[in-house]
Amino acid sequence: MTLLAVERIKLFSTRSPWWCMLLALGLTIGITAIIAANWDGSPMPVLGAVFTHTFGLYVIMVMAALAVTTEYRFGTIKSTFQAVPDRISPMIAKAVVVVLLSALVGLASSFGSWGLSWLLAEDNSDLALTTANDWRHVAGVGLVFAAGALLALGVGALVRQTAGAVSIILVFALVVESVIAFIPNIGDDIQKWMPFTVASKFIFGDPDASAIPEGAGPPAIGELSPWGSFGYFAAIALAIYIISLVVVKRRDA
Amino acid sequence: MIEATGLTKHYGRTVAVDDLSFSAQPGRVTGFLGPNGAGKSTTMRMILGLDAPTRGKVTVNGQDYRSLKQPLRVVGALLDAKWVHPNRSARAHLQWLARSNRLPDRRVDEVLDMVGLTQVAKRRAGGFSLGMSQRLGIAGTLLGDPKVLLFDEPVNGLDPEGILWIRQFMHRLADEGRTVFVSSHLLSEMAQTAQDLVVIGRGKLISQTSTAQFIKDATEDTVRVRSPQLDRLRELLDGRARIAEAAASDGALVVHGVEASFIGELAASNGITLHELSPQLGSLEEAFMQLTKESVEYHAAE
Amino acid sequence: MIEAVGLTKRYGKTVAVDNLSFTVEPGRVTGFLGPNGAGKSTTMRMILGLDRPSAGKVLIDGKPYAQLDRPLRTVGALLDAKWVHPNRSARAHLQWLAKSNGLPDRRVDEVLDLVGLTKVAKRRAGGFSLGMSQRLGIAGALLGDPKVLLFDEPVNGLDPEGILWIRQFMQGLAAEGRTVLVSSHLLSEMALTAQDLVVIGRGKLISQSSTTEFVERSTENTVRVRSPHADKLGAMLVDKGFTVREDTDGSLTVSGAQSDEIGDIAAASGVVLHELSPQRGSLEQAFMQLTGDSVEYHAELAETGK
């Protein structure tokens, strides 16, 4: 508990995490509001209210990466390890705080988006959360944010530089995963297993075919069930994070 | 007490620290000296468990740093005053440090007060002058009221009052029975601060001894003599001591190889009046240059 | 020669430098001392024309900096060793400086050699240690072979060899007839380096004099005496009206007397002397004495215990 308080103080005593959280919420909810207000009059589906969550996800991953890389950038990691020399426990505490916070931001952004759509959409008859799938579409965003943050923490701890960590995360998520589909023959098969593609299947996956809004990303055609998709994404995040723990433990600070 | 035994650190092929053994005793200020690249920082990082030794070990009060449960209560260290997040307030910086070792918030205010930063505690550390950052760093070392203190160039960025303050402060910490280990390049400052010295060069131990002994061993003591009967005195000393004229305009003699008391006795028994009879100690700088000649990294052309 | 006359600088309501007048003579190393916030940096910036005085003026060899034709050939300055683009090589940094003042490329190699950076001249300056950056800055200051040199904390980041080197270097520059003004907080270092001192506090001149004079004026001079007949000698000295204190090791500390007088008294009564050393106060003591109330942050020597 002590170390959680330590990490909480660290996170909230500088400004950038606040900016990241505001930006994540603002982007997700704001863009959803514009979409909802301009929906063409047909009933707005739940998926339409949550598909902007990826914007927030990228921002929250940047926040998570920064939580580690700024410690290296400003040398406070040395003070951290001086205070708690086993190294692993402060890194785990940091992960718990960042992951929980990211989950909360994720939930706030998805329920915020959903709520605002309810108010703004002309026809909100389809927005009611009636099935387990509906709940997963909205509440699942919290889980994806949490796992994404864990992944970003791992990358940040491995790379140690803000610019490097952020570029790796964004270039992979935004460029590599789409471009890879252009590789002849095998591209599509590889893309199906790319972590962020799989993560979006967890949110968007297995809807009623009719409810897929245009351009909302690939429908659930992967090899995995929606929950299997989340398991896959979370496992990758956890693996990278654990590798980073091993490296941090061994490496000279 | 800090004890290093056969401490060795390789970075790739470079040997930064090479089979180094020394100890720093409680109740003393121990200066840690060496030219650039001698391995001082690496050694300090290993003492704090930040870098892992390739071989050998270093213990603090008999324990490996990494095995300490609440290290801030045992060791306070200031390696770099800039290791603070610039957007975090001085107070928040100390708060998270205190919390990590279960130290009460009250202690944060105490140490802020000790270093004279209470008034600026809520300002962001990034806006601090180097001197203020240094004080914040020192506040951090004192949080856990530790028995062992490590400082790397503590007077860096401090003004004369700050320099005097920290010198007296380190002496007081040692007088209270703590182990104070200070690395610095400012030899004229260290001569006034450190009672003991650990001197390294190229990662190896050059000397571990008291400061007075270090100077005595490496420099020659001389005696400065002024007298209205200087020629007579010179004749008497001839053959018993080496004599050099001092560069000073007051016509003093600088006598090598004999004690001041010897000259005093000689003068008195021959009825010679003395106007000055000052034993001149070598400086720490001279001694240091003498002993580390071999192991400096960059030689500037004269 | 540097001449400040009624130099004043206000930032809004703060008066950083307040009617400051002093001169810095050629052929001497002049130390520029003062507590934090005394206005040393502001003064140096005004000397270099970086800041404009609110009132008064400062002249270099009779001219304000801005009117110097080729300033680098008149004034060399090192204010902050970090004023170098980190991705530029040491050599390139000096080259553009040299070009800007019509100095030949050859001079770049000369100064690199002078400060011992020839081997690393092609490496990017961002990878330099503070000590190497400091040497690069000094190389820049020397480019134009200037008559006037300004240094701000020149030993910052240097190791003992570098500190010794720069001390001898500055003294060498002064011996060549140049004007050398050095600002520093390291009084024990300045006591070894500077022949003259300009001391300021809260923007005002506190003292301008030679270092020896400065120390003698504000500290008590005593003489340390050791003798097998210390009791007898001590009594005689007290009779003469001097203050004598006996220390724990049996030596005497005599105030108010010159060592010559004590030597004469001892000789006249056949007292053997084992030591007769005039003790001078330190520059630090003198400085603390004179600047006592013009410091910015006072830290208390408070108890460390909980």
TrEMBL record, chain A:
Alphabetical keyword list: Membrane, Transmembrane, Transmembrane helix
PANTHER family per UniProt: INTEGRAL MEMBRANE PROTEIN-RELATED, MEMBRANE PROTEIN
Organism of this sequence: Saccharothrix carnea
Source taxon at top rank: Bacteria
Annotated protein name in UniProt: ABC-2 type transport system permease protein
TM region positions: 18-39, 45-70, 91-117, 137-159, 166-186, 230-248
From TrEMBL, chain B:
PROSITE patterns xref list: ABC_TRANSPORTER_1, ABC_TRANSPORTER_2
Keyword check for ATP-binding: yes
InterPro entries: AAA+_ATPase (IPR003593), ABC_transporter-like_ATP-bd (IPR003439), ABC_transporter-like_CS (IPR017871), P-loop_NTPase (IPR027417)
Domain ABC transporter: 2-227
Keyword line: ATP-binding, Nucleotide-binding, Transport
Domain of life of the organism encoding this protein: Bacteria
Entries under Gene3D superfamilies matching the protein: P-loop containing nucleotide triphosphate hydrolases (3.40.50.300)
Keyword check for ATP-binding: yes
Pfam families on file: ABC_tran (PF00005)
An example molecular function term from Gene Ontology annotations: ATP binding
SUPFAM superfamilies attached to this UniProt entry: P-loop containing nucleoside triphosphate hydrolases
Family (UniProt): Belongs to the ABC transporter superfamily.
Annotated protein name in UniProt: ABC-2 type transport system ATP-binding protein
Organism from which the protein derives: Saccharothrix carnea
TrEMBL record, chain C:
GO MF term set: ATP binding; ATP hydrolysis activity
Keyword NAD: no
Record's keyword terms, sorted: ATP-binding, Nucleotide-binding, Transport
Top-rank taxon, per record: Bacteria
Pfam families assigned: ABC_tran (PF00005)
Family: Belongs to the ABC transporter superfamily.
This protein's name: ABC-2 type transport system ATP-binding protein
